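User: Assemble these into one structure.

Assistant: Restating your components, then the assembled model:
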Amino acid sequence: MFQRREFLKAAGAGLMMSVLPNLSWALAPAGYKRLLVLVELKGGNDGLNTAVPYASADYYRLRPGIAIAREQVLQLNGEIGLHPSLAPLMPLWQDRQLALLQGVGYPDPNLSHFRSIEIWDTASASQQFLTEGWLTRLFREQPTPKHFAADGVVLSSQVLGPLDGGARAVVLSNPQDFARQAKLVADQQPGRAGSALEHILKVEGDIRQAAASLAPLPRTAPSEAPTAGPKPNGGFGVAVRTLTDTLARGVDIAVARITLTGFDTHGNQQPVQGRLLTELADGLAQLRAEMTRLGRWDDTLVLSYAEFGRRPRENGNRGTDHGTASVHFALGGRVNGGLYGKTPQLAGVSDGNLPHAIDFRQLYATAIDGWWGKDSHDVLGGRFAPLPLLRA
Amino acid sequence: MIKTIVLASALLGLPLTALADIGVDGARHLLLRTGFGANPAQIAALAPLSREAAVDRILAGVRNQPVTAPPGWANEPFERPGQPGLSEEQKKALQQERNQHAVELRSWWLTEMRDTPSPLTEKMTLFWHNHFVSALDKVRSPQMMYQQNLLLRHYALGDFGQLLHAVARDPAMMRYLDTANNRKEQPNENFAREVMELFTLGEGHYSEQDIREAARAFTGWGLDRDDQFIVRPRLRDTGEKTIFGQRGNFDGDDVIELLLQQPSTAVFVTNKLWRNFVSPTPDAATVNKLAADFRRGHYQLKPLMRAMLLTPQFWRSQGLLVKSPVELTVGTLVTFDLNPPDWRVIAGLNRQLGQDVFAPPNVKGWPGGEAWINSATLLSRKQFLDRVARDAAPARDAYAQADGSLNEMAGREARIRRFVSKGLSSMKLQPDEWAAIYGVKNGADAARLLLAVPPANPLPANASGAKAVAGLLLDPAYQVE
């Protein structure tokens, strides 16, 4: 079986782990120089119509109105294929730089958008209430170098998510605007303050530090524009372009989070999801092209996430209601492409929800231990097994 | 005189503070929390009153209709999102018209927020807009959003139970949360889930089973050809449902009554009001008492707000809330008597700052509080204030006299001359005129009128009122209320 082959292959990479149990492979020395890009699919993307189990009669039984027709699916093996809008990702798949993580979720899932994304952003257990983002905890315990412009940048969203609660985070819409406006932030001594004022003073401090790094580079000729290629379509592509422009300036950050909104498809799902997945796939292909041009694709790991997947059975409005586990993407120059986790088992499903095969905290452990060579134990409140997703 | 008051309060058993006037600080605080900004003239009117008298004056003036004339299209039949058989050109024209209507809709409400004689009404309407959320991008009809806005205003300080029933049948809401197509056999759970999680009970006070059963109860509710509420018996699931342990052939209204019977509904709503009007950290004992009275009093909002505004915690809460973008922008216009040349500028700025009215980010609305401020929004806020205050540079301090006071008469005359020559359209603050008209003699006066807490950056020594304004607007303390 495909899955088993993947596993055996991954076990080869895992050998090093058994020799050096805590050093997390040869990746460790680069640390936060390696970039993590988190892609939030806001609203809860429908995993079954993303990685389509097209060989399953149960899939077509549960979704008479919204199933992706077998002949449209981009077949990956005898069971699973991609939504046709994801065609721009096929070169990555063929180059084995795209991994599909099937059945990502957590025990005792919560179906509220707001509570569930809080669980993902704080890396808490279902019944545990934490106030800080998981990256905020990581960067407090194991800080990024002082010269970094920020711990992370946030694009296409005003919500800091995993960077909430104290990380040095900068919301980036346009680097030039940012540098110009930052002059309005006067130097002052952060001192006495109520909580609201204290927060404002802290943000002013973050701005001062980031502004120094994000100041526009003097350009000698227009041909030295940081990013080549045609203008991107859609907000996601623009955000990718802003990120790569920023990195092209030599700005150091550990994390970028980009949000793509609109996946809460209770009605008329097909055209909406198709458009969003097109935007996603185009933007990710563009990210790969730009990072390759900057010589940093091998130091880039992209992970997608969302609050939940959706119900296997469609509702009465050609849409889907909130569900549980879903498929997610991992891609990058060092990603070990292929299928991970478990293909959804739909036999016998009527109104139920899918169990998870991969705990989302395993992905975080993969990023912290495997990608950055840091220790995830305290950040995640326990030991979660990293996935064999990365090549040295 | 003072002796008499102390004696009277001792005799009547009243705390002394009940008789003391709220002063400039108290008046500014009450005005900012129950409205948008505070003009020195408004402050002066409330400052001599006691807490009770000031709160009662604000509540006595509460309206439930807007004073601003609506856009011309507002009462036309609802626009249909998907008309069949249109050419590409017609589709484009229709889209342009819809965008134009959306702009006019926002301008209308922002104007009302600035001009209303009842700012608390608009503050509450905005609160309900952020509680019973709908958004233009999904509803797609500016008329529906306008009608919903009138509905929220009508009940803004009225009966929460009636408001809840009305919202559930509101066409914009039915479209936004998919109630309009909820039918038996294949219920759509969207409304059933959000009415429990976000409108009434709050997370943790219901089960997934309650949601599924409630979704069945709302089946059959729909919109007719004219987008008006209708019950379609053939699409109704008439079977027995079990919700919160009670069994019956419930319909949508029954579910809402069941929700109103749950004690957590009153606590949830009271907590949210507290976080919006008092502080981000509700005092559990006080909230529970207010909520119990709220439920016993059949969900009347005006007495609840009165009681909340008269708690000692409210009067100690200066500076604990971050100004929302609308509070910052509209509030600054009110504070300095400014009239924007084009409301689209303010609407666009609010969007940039994260509070585009009629377009909350999702059904939970704007999270508010510290989330309003990040590196991008703080810079945009300061840029706006910098532009407003640009004329507040020291050189503009043209009406200062040798002793540091201001020539009020000259300032007033200059302002009148400018009004006559340019109309009431200036967005530029004239700090010297503002200071002159309102008798703002020095920096400390200006700080008391403009800030809820002392400035983070110390005022320059001996600054006149006019000179201090620009610095106070860019001070981090201006971001809180």
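Chain A touches chain B through 48 residues (CB under 8 Å).
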